[in-house]
């Protein structure tokens, strides 16, 4: 028996010449299995809005309670006609105070400068024809 025979040829050699007709001569490859997409586990979360109203929401976040400080109830873009939200600056993190301490109050919208006193902002000093 030659040592270079493969396992299928070796089995056919042991069983005789009739067994070689029973063994497959080509590979049989079935279709690959398409797996379902993984769906993450969703938690039930209690959303608390700024006015105190709450609702339940299914989300992937494991936090059981979410308290919103800025939402549709207190944002001026959602409530453009509300007078109590007009010109209100909420500086919870102190970022506006730090900006004003570093750069001054020249960027505030309440500060109005006279264009004749400041020549840079007047249209005549822009250097173009209007």
From TrEMBL:
Domain named Ribosomal protein bL31m N-terminal: residues: 36-81
GO CC aspect terms: mitochondrial large ribosomal subunit
One function term, GO molecular function aspect: structural constituent of ribosome
Keywords: Ribonucleoprotein, Ribosomal protein
GO biological process: mitochondrial translation
Lineage top rank: taxon: Eukaryota
Gene3D superfamilies: 6.20.130.10
InterPro entries cross-referenced by the UniProt entry: Ribosomal_bL31m (IPR034600), Ribosomal_bL31m_N (IPR048874)
Record-given protein name: 54S ribosomal protein L36, mitochondrial
Organism listed in the record: Diplodia seriata
Lineage, highest ranks first: Eukaryota, Fungi, Dikarya, Ascomycota, Pezizomycotina
